[in-house]
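Hi,

I'm pasting everything inline rather than attaching a file, because the server keeps stripping attachments. The sequence lines come first, and each chain or strand is labelled.
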Amino acid sequence: MRGFLSLFRHLEGPQTAGRGPAFWSLFSLVLVAACAYPLFSDGYTVGNTVYFFVWVFIALSLCLIWGYGGSLSFGQTAFFGIAGYGYGVLTINFGSAYGFTLVALVLAIAIAALFALLLGYFMFFGRIAGVFLGIVTLAVTLMLERFMAQTAGPEWHIGSARLNGFNGMSAMPPLTIPWPGEPLVLFADIGLYYVVLGLLVLVYLGLRILMNSAFGNVIVAIRENPERAEMLGYDIRKYQLITFVIGAALAGLSGVLYTVWGQYITPSSMGMTAAALPLIWVAVGGRSDLTSTLIGTLAVLAAFQALTIYGSQYALVFMGVLLVLTVLIAPNGLVLGTMNWLGRFAARFTQRAG
Amino acid sequence: MSLLELRKLNKHFGGLHVTNSVDLTLRTGEIHCLIGPNGAGKSTLFRLILGEHHPGSGDILFAGENITALKSFARIHRGLSVKFQVPGVFKGVSVRQNLEIALQSRHRGAELEAEIGRLLAFLGLESEQAQIAGNLSHGQKQWLEIGMAISLKPRLLLLDEPTAGMSPEETHMTGEMVQRLNADGMTVLAIEHDMAFVRQVAHRVTVLHLGQVFAQGSIDEIVADERVAAIYLGQAHA
Ligand SMILES: Nc1ncnc2c1ncn2[C@@H]1O[C@H](COP(=O)(O)OP(=O)(O)OP(=O)(O)O)[C@@H](O)[C@H]1O
Ligand SMILES: [Mg+2]
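And the predicted assembly:
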């Protein structure tokens, strides 16, 4: 029981911005608003919001591996794709009865995590770090994209699931929850919204606890100075590998939800652009903080979509400009910079009042 | 009783013979200083002891066990600990968190908080505990890292130039710190250029020159040695 309570103690700490009653009140308010929001909106808009939420998981995975752990990985997109295709292959073959889509969700994430375990083992136990880690993960991602893109022929199938090359795989069943009478089919609107929102809150709070725990301390220590961390007796390879696998699972969750949302997945979801975009969201928000990453990702995605109406070329230029501005003005992230500034402001205000 | 025994340690960096058949024995409970000119191979010897570099030939024995093939973290678990030449603190996090990271594998909860407090007091860093470690002065960083190193309660503490960048008073305080640790049973091997510090703490001194053990003895014997004066102390005392 005490161990369980001490988990909640780790909800706030030095590794995560936002603490105290003010922060948690705001958090509850936002959560209530997020729960009530579908009542005041239409199915299409809600579906679109789900689409935004789906990307937050991969952004958080990058925040964990890169922002906290210090290893720049381009591999998140690969895990995204593997899990997405995994879900497709499993559900197209075995259908959606008896709650199998939920099993497929877990299995698909497990496949991505297993792949990360293998890849990570060779990288971290082979002491590949820094730029080289970026190069290896990018190479793996692009190889997977190339490979999937050439699977157009009918000989490329797993069971009854055709891989379909560049056109991608489609028509997999949505998430279906067995229910007495009629099973609940979660199409990309209100039903899926609440499931994804629930997962998002769970993952966000879970990561807060993880990063403020002893494990998170070691992860940050490895980012700051791997040699010193090892000379305090930590087998840093193990910590890096575990973080990498957790990150892969989160990216995989993104991939499955994306596949479920649109009922398709294509090789371009593992391409160069797809690999670069999460980096921009995370960098712009604030890679070393979960909350900044979450807010930054949603804000950039919304801005990106709004601009796409005027033409996607403007939207991409905007992303570039945003990245340059971030690097110049607030290298730790625009959202994180603003949150720190607000924190200092509030502290001075309460000091003067008290 | 010997705590650490280096047997014919050889290490090459390309054509450079950095440690040349080094034999060195540390007695349990002593403070041993390692001195020698820049580039003599002192820090490299530390990295061999810690397993960051692997010797071309030779053996490292710690408390009777051959640890030559062990990984670094495993050697730390056996009771080794180090403060590096360039202070290796976690720059981006607070002083307090630096100590927490060092202490958390041995202590939990309230006990951990108490240990952190004790260590902050020992290091004289109480008023700096909330500061980001990267903002500390050079001397404070040295102390913080010494604090992290001793938080592991090592049997052998390796200190690579612990007083570099410190004023004479700070150097003296560091010497007293080392003597207190030693009185509690910690064996210490310190690389140092500051002869006042060496005179203050060393029970025995080894001079390393061009990767070889050049001389060994008490501080008075070393200072009186004309050969040592010619290669090293001559310049320092000139
Ligand atoms: N990783 C390395 N690769 C190649 N050469 C190295 C490496 N590390 C050290 N050296 C060289 O080995 C020699 C010994 O270096 P070391 O750092 O051990 O000297 P030191 O006695 O600690 O000197 P100082 O008093 O300046 O710290 C130097 O010539 C150095 O340039
Ligand atoms: Mg040195």
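Chain A has a mean pLDDT of 92.

If the labels don't parse on your end, tell me and I'll reformat.
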